[in-house]
């Protein structure tokens, strides 16, 4: 609960509002790539960040106050294989156990479920400040930033396909004399952006019983006593040498 309170206070700052605006832009684009009928946000980060289509069923779960269903992150009140898409809005780095939360989400996702993960980059300026100056943290108190590569490794172990990993953050317009050099350095500076969004989906194919075609079933039945074209052949033994018929 203390993590939820600290994140709410941080989001009321100008930095928090700038991060929320940048995240909503990325999520609005990511929502157009999802398919299904149910999508849930785990964690009350900024209230509801999802703007699903009218045919989607959506909701927010977590220990914060601004959620639809209050629950612990280590025990989600969801049935197995019941959700088509899940957004983890900075939940892994605020949860007491990131592994337990990821396993719970994997249990609730359907066989072709999709997963969106928002997180802070520990190698950004904010992440380094959080690690070096613990008395004046740049991120919400209690945040433990996780490397995007580490999360992707966890997802692959759970048999997920990582579709994309986007790094972004609130940016200010640089001076005119810096715009051209920064344009060429953009592929490098992107690795130090403060926020990332990982998109992944399950690679498990539901096992459906396939019935044998009728013509194959009749052929197999012929082996049990019903004459077929191949089983109706007659073998004539050869006569011994010198014998006459």
UniProtKB/TrEMBL annotation:
Pfam family, one: Methyltransf_11
Keyword set, alphabetical order: Transferase
Domain Methyltransferase type: 69-117
Gene Ontology MF: a single term: S-adenosylmethionine-dependent methyltransferase activity
Keyword Cell cycle: no
Keyword Transferase tagged: yes
InterPro entries, per the entry: Methyltransf_11 (IPR013216), SAM-dependent_MTases_sf (IPR029063)
Recorded superkingdom: Bacteria
Protein name: Methyl-transferase
């Amino acid at each position: 609960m203390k993590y939820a309170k600290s994140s709410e206070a941080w989001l009321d700052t100008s930095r928090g509002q700038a991060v929320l605006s940048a995240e909503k832009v990325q999520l609005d684009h990511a929502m157009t790539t999802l398919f299904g009928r149910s999508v849930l946000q785990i964690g009350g980060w900024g209230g509801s960040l999802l703007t699903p289509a009218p045919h989607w069923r959506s909701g927010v779960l977590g220990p914060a106050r601004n959620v639809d269903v209050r629950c612990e992150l280590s025990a989600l009140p969801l049935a197995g294989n019941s959700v088509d898409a899940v957004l983890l809005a900075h939940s892994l780095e605020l949860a007491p156990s990131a592994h337990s939360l990821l396993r719970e989400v994997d249990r609730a996702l359907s066989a072709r479920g999709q997963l969106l993960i928002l997180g802070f980059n520990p190698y950004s300026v904010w992440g380094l400040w959080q690690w070096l100056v613990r008395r004046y943290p740049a991120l919400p108190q209690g945040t433990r930033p996780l490397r995007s590569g580490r999360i992707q490794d966890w997802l692959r172990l759970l048999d997920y396909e990582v579709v994309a990993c986007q790094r972004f953050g609130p940016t200010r317009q640089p001076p005119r004399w810096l715009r051209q050099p920064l344009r060429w350095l953009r592929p490098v500076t992107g690795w130090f952006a403060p926020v990332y969004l990982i998109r992944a989906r399950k690679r498990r194919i539901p096992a459906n019983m396939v019935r044998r075609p009728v013509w194959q079933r009749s052929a197999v039945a012929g082996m049990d006593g019903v004459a077929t074209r191949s089983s109706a052949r007659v073998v004539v033994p050869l006569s011994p040498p010198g014998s006459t018929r």
